[in-house]
Amino acid sequence: MAEPTTADGFADADAEATSAGPLPRSRAEQRPLPGPLAYLLLVRMWSRAASQYRVSLALTGVAQVFTTCLDLIAILVIYSQVPVIGGFTLAQTLYLYGTTRLAFGLSDLVASGVETLADSIRLGTFDIVLIRPVSTLAQVLADQFTPKRFGKLVPAIATLIWAVIVLPVQWNAIRVILCCFTVLCGFVIYCALWVLSGCVSFVAVDAREVANTFTYGSEFATEYPITIFGRPLGLALTFVLPVAFVTWQPTLYVLGRSDPFGLPGFLRFASPVAAVLLSGLAALVWRACIRRYRSTGS
Amino acid sequence: MTDPIILAEGLTKTFDSRARTGRFKRERTAFTAVDGIDLRVARGELVGYIGPNGAGKSTTIKMLTGILTPSSGYLRVAGYEPQRDRVRLARRIGVVFGQRTTLWWDLPLADSFTLLQRLYRIPPRRFAENLDFYVEELGLSEFLDRPVRQLSLGQRMRGDLTAALLHDPAVVYLDEPTIGLDVVSKHAVRGFLRELNRRTGTTILLTTHDVDDIERLCSRVVAIDHGRVTYDGSLEELRADRDLETVVRELYTGRSLVDTTE
Q: A155 in a domain, yes or no?
């Protein structure tokens, strides 16, 4: 076994320092950068990269506003023909739409970087994520962040404000808190779904479409009153893929309605539980996927 | 000195793959990429890790960095168990993949470096000193402001080397660092690596298909084939006054004249 080529040797186990070389670092600096900080750092870097092309950024941002409006227009068209869908009036459906869209828009803003994961696994560039001294999830979520995603929030916020004003609802403290919680828990649940959809890429590299049914599919399913899907599918959305907790259940309380499927009342307040459980599950599955990552040849 | 910075015992990686054998039937086959490797590298060594394509070099390096989880065996790098302590180990190691860059494609080179400073929590003074040193040593100043995607392969490789070293890693893995480079760039990279190893005592593990790399850089050579170590010893012993290229060819085709392992 060859000896080190330097003359001064390496008596101190942790000193690879020589005259030109590194100084030993202090203990405090040895702790890795926390995930949220790393996330913000990377988001800022990607935003800066995106804003190098200002015109393009502005245009795509505006385009996001319009494409998000399309399904809003669809809802308006349907209601111009029938007064009630699945037992819900226009204002009620728009409240549901607004909260769902806002929760999803926020998760899209924060977590849709996951969508690039399939490509980075296929091309093997995910290796580089694994050699950085920060959380893998922070890096993946921040990937390719672009401020244009704020565009999706505009119609959502406008619709929600309009619905809140128009709805014949007594806005007491519980309802206001529940409304905020609807958006917050919805945001967390969707983020967990983004992460789980990313995990699909580890198992089946070409399964992006499958993964999209989790995220965009869940979002679509919760924009409308779940009653339109009928009882079996409605229950499946509640308990199998618990997206009903995103907006449907708390909204029933806010609108002062009983559950059309006859589910017990405490479920109206179960969104935080669903959010915690689902994000815990997502974190566990993510870790398992990282452990089983196979990389590519080369 | 007594503690090796890289210690692997019986390191093995097996990949499961399923091949379709019929309409519904699938056959599971296990492919062993790395098959019980023993490796001890002392601090400050410069080791050439060679072997034919598909011998298991990259798989080994990916286990040493924590990218892949070993199927079995014992592994410690700088005192860490790579896959479990991956995040903490990451600050003690540097990695260069010759085939792909670790820099941010759309960012100017200098911005990649400042981002790395924050991610690796390199103290500002240390960072400034190191950056100055590498900019000088590798001649980066003329393209620091250019986005990485606009750099030539040689420039990019120099950028990648800097990126892997700014945080003063104890171990650096270089996976084919001279691949695709012209003679001048190769020469520059080799000179730099030798100087780095000499001055800072950074341990270097290098995979390459370039016999010149081995000849000019490595004091020790570890060769593997089919996931097993076929030679581990000094360069002089391996060569024994013959042309290194012939020796390596013999090693790769399995007609080794040198007695293998311990």
A: yes
Contacts with B200 from chain A: Cβ below 8 Å:
16-18, 20-22
Residue A20 located in a structural domain? no
Nearest CA in chain B to A11: B1
Q: In what order do the strands lie in the sheet with B171-175?
A: B93-97, B171-175, B203-207, B46-50, B220-225, B228-234
> Which residues from chain B sit within 8 angstroms of residue A25, using beta carbons?
123, 126, 168
Quote the CA–CA distance of B122 and A151 in Å, as a whole number.
36
Our count of domains for chain A comes to: 1
Q: For the full predicted model, state whether its pTM sits above 0.90.
A: no
Question: Is-contact B118 A33, C-beta < 8 A?
Answer: yes
Are the Cβ atoms of B88 and A127 closer than 8 angstroms? no
Show the domain range for A91.
33-291
d(CA B154, CA B171): 23
- Any domain includes A196: yes
Cβ–Cβ under 8 Å, residues A193 and A115: no
Taking only the tens of pLDDT, chain B with its 262 residues reads 568 999 999 999 999 877 766 777 777 788 899 999 999 999 999 999 999 988 999 999 999 999 999 999 999 999 999 999 999 999 999 999 988 899 988 889 999 999 999 999 999 999 999 999 999 999 999 999 999 999 999 999 999 999 999 999 999 999 999 988 999 889 989 999 999 999 999 999 999 888 889 988 998 999 999 999 999 999 888 887 778 888 888 888 765 444 444 3
Q: What is the ipTM of this complex?
A: 0.88
Instruction: Kindly state whether residue A8 falls inside one of the protein's structural domains.
Output: no
